[in-house]
């Protein structure tokens, strides 16, 4: 009952904020990107043209003035396009969250991120084979669950490398 009263009460302020936002809010047309790992910041409120993310609800392309949203990220490629028409920089992430804020900024918190061009296809194939061996062995259930996660990540890596 409380939630049914609270949600309509939140909609009005959010709708008003959305109506106030306009394309003039961003003078340079850039999105402020922060791509943060536990041990490093790759981008820190840097102005970029767009960012493609592997959201759990489907791949998304985020531009300036995107509607605010929070998305869980699947293993996959984050592509940062710094200027219109430029080649994107690509990082493979294993998991994380992306938050598009109302102030025209995007924060991506990732567990790990690696430049896609630095990943060896041979190492990916070997890692996938090792994880599949563990999964088909008599290993404890906990090890098999870890192997399942590794297989998902390695398969996502293989797909990303084939799309390069």
From TrEMBL:
Output the Gene Ontology cellular-component terms.
Answer: mitochondrial inner membrane; proton-transporting ATP synthase complex
GO MF terms on file?
proton-transporting ATP synthase activity, rotational mechanism
Source organism: Papiliotrema laurentii
Per UniProt, which keywords does this protein have? ATP synthesis, CF(1), Hydrogen ion transport, Ion transport, Membrane, Mitochondrion, Mitochondrion inner membrane, Transit peptide, Transport
Family classification: Belongs to the ATPase epsilon chain family.
Q: What is its main location?
A: mitochondrion
Q: Where is the ATP synthase F1 complex delta/epsilon subunit N-terminal domain?
A: 32-111
Q: State the name under which the record lists this protein.
A: ATP synthase subunit delta, mitochondrial
Q: Localized where? A: Mitochondrion inner membrane
Lineage in the entry? Eukaryota, Fungi, Dikarya, Basidiomycota, Agaricomycotina
UniProt cross-references to InterPro entries, sorted A to Z: ATP_synth_F1_dsu/esu, ATP_synth_F1_dsu/esu_N, ATPsynth_dsu/esu_N
């Amino acid at each position: 009952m409380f939630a049914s009263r609270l949600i309509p009460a939140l909609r009005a302020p959010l709708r008003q904020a959305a109506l106030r936002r306009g394309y003039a809010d961003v003078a340079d047309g850039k999105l402020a990107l922060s791509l943060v790992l536990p041990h490093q910041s790759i981008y820190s409120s840097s102005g970029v043209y767009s960012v493609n993310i592997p959201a759990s609800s489907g791949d998304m392309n985020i531009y300036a003035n995107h509607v605010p949203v929070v998305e869980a990220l699947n293993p996959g490629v984050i592509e940062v396009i710094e200027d219109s028409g430029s080649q994107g920089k690509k990082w493979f992430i294993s998991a994380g969250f992306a938050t598009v804020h109302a102030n025209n900024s995007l924060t991506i918190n990732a567990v790990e991120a690696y430049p896609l061009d630095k990943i060896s296809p041979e190492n990916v194939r070997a890692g996938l084979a090792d994880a599949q061996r563990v999964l088909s062995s008599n290993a404890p259930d906990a090890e098999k669950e870890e192997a399942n996660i590794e297989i998902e990540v390695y398969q996502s890596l293989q797909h990303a490398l084939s799309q390069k």
